[in-house]
Design goal:
Shape: globular
CATH architecture of the largest domain: 3-Layer(aba) Sandwich
Structural class: alpha/beta
Bound molecules: flavin-adenine dinucleotide, FE2/S2 (inorganic) cluster
Radius of gyration: 18 Å
Distance between the termini: 28 Å
Length: about 270
């Protein structure tokens, strides 16, 4: 897709709505047959518009192998201009989509390596596209491990989950994701880490990964920033000299370190 075409929303139909939690829904969006579909790299995002209401960025959570069926998981913000009306929509309704926006995780540069995915909260949907991609190219990568701070069963990968606070119904790990990292048997020279989650998770996780000898050049973070245009024109997402919408949202960790304000942007 020519980047300039990202200025124009394309119409998509809501094909399915899956209720995840009281405030989160997964929407499956279908692009028409005569649309070229959306070729995207895992980690990229779309700008979704609710017609007549507003537009907002969401990480693509579906398989890149299905360019006409896009999935996003959306948390409804109180009084959110786009997310509140989106949560009221139904199967068969139309939305606008622009994208794919930004860059993705560097999967082609990490062939043969172990991939460690670390997700917190709403970071998991974006890493879900990475999981789909690696499962579709399983022989090209080593061990695939997912560490996640909530309950989601996932077959075919080494998935370790934890909850912040356990109750009597929970038989798994309790504590923060950083504690799971500490217990891993990592091969630091052969491991690349893709992370997506809030700063409060990423900061301690990075500290432990550094103690385990994973280099900054092998850690990638999908950063969120407040965005409007998504195409490097409005300046809303600017952090120092980087437009998160264009230069990111995926940044190598040593680049993030150079962006002094990164904790406010994650
Ligand atoms: C690259 C990228 C990927 C994203 N992926 C997802 C995703 O997969 N799922 C998802 O639910 N959300 C995701 N977000 C966040 C999502 O874009 C915001 O929740 C959305 O813009 C809110 O839109 P709104 O119009 O409903 O809210 P607004 O009316 O714009 O704002 C409502 C309230 O929410 C606050 N708010 C808005 N955006 C954010 C934010 N990013 N972080 C914290 N507070 C915010 C505002 O300050 C305001 O108080 C992503 C953001 C980016 C930049
Ligand atoms: S969102 Fe407008 S410049 Fe990035």
């Amino acid at each position: 897709m020519n980047p300039s075409e990202n200025y124009i929303p394309r119409l998509a139909t809501i094909a399915d709505i899956h209720i995840e939690t009281r405030t989160e829904k997964t929407f499956t969006l279908r692009l028409p047959d005569d649309d070229p579909g959306m070729d995207f790299d895992p980690g990229q995002f779309i700008e979704l518009s609710v017609l007549g209401a507003g537009e907002a960025p969401f990480g693509l959570a579906s398989s890149p192998a299905q360019p006409h069926l896009l999935q996003i998981t959306v948390r409804r913000y109180p009084a959110g201009i786009a997310t509140v009306p989106l949560h009221r929509m139904h199967v068969g309704d139309y939305v606008g989509v622009r994208g794919p926006m930004g860059n993705g995780f560097p999967l082609a540069e990490n062939l043969g390596r172990d991939i460690l995915l670390i997700a917190g909260g709403l970071g998991l949907p974006t890493l879900r596209a990475v999981i789909f991609y690696i499962l579709d190219h399983r022989d090209d990568y080593g061990q695939l491990t997912l560490l996640y701070g909530a309950r989601t069963p996932a077959p075919e990968i080494d998935c370790q989950q934890t909850v912040d606070v356990a109750d009597e119904s929970w038989g798994g790990n309790a504590g923060y994701v950083s504690e799971l990292v500490d217990r891993l048997q990592l091969q630091p020279d052969n491991t690349t880490v893709f992370m997506c989650g809030p700063a409060v998770m990423i900061t301690p996780v990075v500290t432990i990964l550094e103690e385990l000898d994973v280099s900054c050049e092998q850690m990638y973070i999908n950063m969120e920033a407040h965005m409007k245009c998504g195409v490097g024109k409005c300046g809303h997402c600017l952090i120092r000299d980087k437009y998160v919408c264009l230069d990111g949202p995926v940044f190598r960790y040593d680049k993030v370190q150079q962006m002094q304000d990164f904790q406010h942007a994650l």
